[in-house]
Design goal:
42% of the residues lie in helices and 16% in strands. By secondary structure, the chain is of the alpha/beta class. It has one domain: TIM Barrel. The protein has an eight-stranded parallel beta barrel, surrounded by five helices. Strand 7, helix 9 and strand 8 form a beta-alpha-beta unit. It is globular. The two termini are 12 Å apart. Bound molecules: cytidine-5'-monophosphate (C5P).
Length: 227
Amino acid sequence: MLDSKVIIALDYSDEKEVWQFCERLDNNKCKLKVGKQLFTKYGPSLVEKLQSKGFKIFLDLKFHDIPTTVYKASIEAYKLGIWMLNVHALGGAEMMRAALQARDEINSESKLIGVTVLTSHSDESLSRIGIGKRDNLAKILANQVSDVGLDGVVCSPSDIESIGIREESFLFVTPGIRLSLDSDDHNNAFTPKQACSLGADYIVIGRPITESDDPMCILDKVVSSTY
Ligand code: C5P
């Protein structure tokens, strides 16, 4: 079976909803992303329970702090046996190296990726905080992520070309995916097929699946459009 490119963002507010959803899911068809909301509410035990049902977990906590704090938090994250972890590239090279050092010490096989520019940012919102254009920033940050030796980046599908990193092993994980092009709070949305043809290795998709009347049918459609 091919490795699924689909990562479902489990952005539910209640554990019951998680289990209702997951009991119908085939763990070969997708990975699951546990983010700040569920992790803050239910903590590591939720991650462990999901893993015991065979799901690979992307722990999306987007660490961004001083290197020592990120090192210590990363140690705890890797101990959970997760499949993927992320940090904000804006935290700098030293902070990213601290997360890598933690991975080496735990001997974890988790992927470690850097968040470049949130897909909710536009050029205008970046300029309001004194930062230049998103294309340029995404490129600078992604190259730093690659130089430090992380496995890849989280970015918009539209950033992949301008980032310009061509190594096969460097992963592009892209949120902001929609089945039709209504974008919710993403500045720029892409269909699964578009994202993959722009070079996404994994797509992160939440509400179009989790809020659908027939999530399994939508998931099948998404999975088939990524091959
Ligand atoms: O529901 P939707 O498909 O918009 O899901 C978006 C998910 O992707 C959220 O969990 C959000 O935290 C995540 N995200 C991300 N990195 C970004 C933008 C969104 O991980 N740059």
